[in-house]
Amino acid sequence: xxxxxxxxxxxxKVVEIIQKMTDRHEYCDENGTQYExxxxxxxxxxxxxxxxxxxxxxxxxxxxxKMNVGEMWDLSKDLSNKRKQxxxxxxxxxxxxxxxxxxxxxxxxxxxxKKISH
Length: 118
Fold this sequence. Notes:
The structure is a single chain. The protein has helices at 55-64, 69-87, 91-112; strands at 3-7, 14-18, 36-38. A 3-stranded antiparallel beta sheet has the order 2-1-3, with no helix packed on it. By secondary structure, it is an alpha+beta fold. The longest helix is centred in the last third of the chain and has 22 residues, at 91-112. The chain has 2 domains: 3-38, no CATH class; 55-111, no CATH class.
């Protein structure tokens, strides 16, 4: 059920009351004082949920929020942790590390096979 806020007309004290949406949204204290309802903007955001397995979601969020490199690293780490929670491991990170390892091995093999001339 939603929480509704009411303000005391003289003291300004704000109380939060849980009410059904179908209830009358009024509040009186034990002394019979009628409180004024406080209206607030809801905290809505269209991009709070991002699919941790979606490359496009990451790219779109980074672009839309105009993130700097540090913010993208933080987001990447958060998404990696979510993937780990869901699957028990982060396959994207594992694939990246595997490719990075293979690339380094190939680079070493390529450079050590050359003969050094004096």
